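Write out this protein's structure.
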Amino acid sequence: MLNVIIFIGRFQPPNLAHIEIIKRAQTLAEKTIILVGSANKERSDLNPWTAQERIEMLRSIKELDQNKLLIIPLSDSNNDFPWWLDLVKKTVKENTQKTDKIGIIGHKKDKSSYYLDHFPEWQFIEVENLAGGLSSTKIRETLFQKNKITGVCPEVRAWLEKRQLRMKNEELRI
């Protein structure tokens, strides 16, 4: 058994596939570290929620064992992939023991998943496509069009509905 599993994502917002991956990680390791990406980005149509807001959403999900989760904001690299890789490794090292057996979990959905191959020191746990056409992009589009929010768990839906975006369209560039 692994001691720690790493799951990296933007979670804009956390969707049902993300939750299934986290639940799977929690069955495979003692602790799951979720790295919430784009933590240093300004609000935009691609990143409408701050890292803290996404962490709140993840913390609200009752079906996750919150005692086995460590959720850490992770900055983007501004196109400096080696810097980003070093940041991920440093963040994980600071939050694990030297003797921990570490894995990284994810789904290689497209070319944006290339980073998963850059951690040979960690065991890769590939997850099949759990989304079934679901994506956080579609969820954001639905939310911004003020349609019914689907594809998220009840806690995240409540969070989104309770804290409707109070930004002007030009701030979101939509």
